[in-house]
Amino acid sequence: MLADKAARDQLIAFFHSGTKVEYKKGESIVRSGDEPLGIHYIDEGFVKAYAITKYGEENNLIVRQHDDIFPLIWAFTGLHRDITYQALSDTTLWRVSRSAFLEFLKTNEHAMTVILDMSIEAYRLHSERVMTLEYRTVKERLASFLLTHAERFNDGSSKNLALSAPIRRHDIASSINASRESTSRALSALAKAGYVNLKSRYIEIPNPDKLKELL
Q1: In the predicted model, is pLDDT for residue 191 greater than 70?
Q2: Fold designation for 135-212
Q3: Class (C level, CATH) for 2-123
């Protein structure tokens, strides 16, 4: 564990030697089709990655948070898919060039274990999203989304498990392949049945085991 912490601290120190960049909520960091300006480390804030379907709809792929690094696929392959990275909140990043990032990893092998852990976590989240989309009803997909993301983003500020991230209903709807209206109806139904609490700043889940029963 100490070796992992040392490798992570080394990786963060490397990014802090790069360029500090700040984005306001809603600003695009990397636009679809554009070559990224470099590899980014999230120092503070939240960043969502999404694609636009052939029908012109937003397909929310993943939300990244503090300590995440992106775009890793482009970092290692040089290939950038048609994905937009957008700040979900006021966000502070540190950016380094792709060449400097790859050179750093060549000379700091232990840092690769940190990158591997991040890649495995991203793969796990994408796999869970695929499984979520297999549920037949919007309510089931919503319950699965809330459980996964509340466990991931819960910051401990609430006595209940809470989705402590600025994820809007629009973002939830695009993540579970549902309309905003049907997502809102399903969320209201969950609240009425006591599965979630919508009266706090973030969506709270008073009894996660009870919500899991829907799945």
Answers
A1: yes
A2: Arc Repressor Mutant, subunit A (1.10.10)
A3: mainly beta
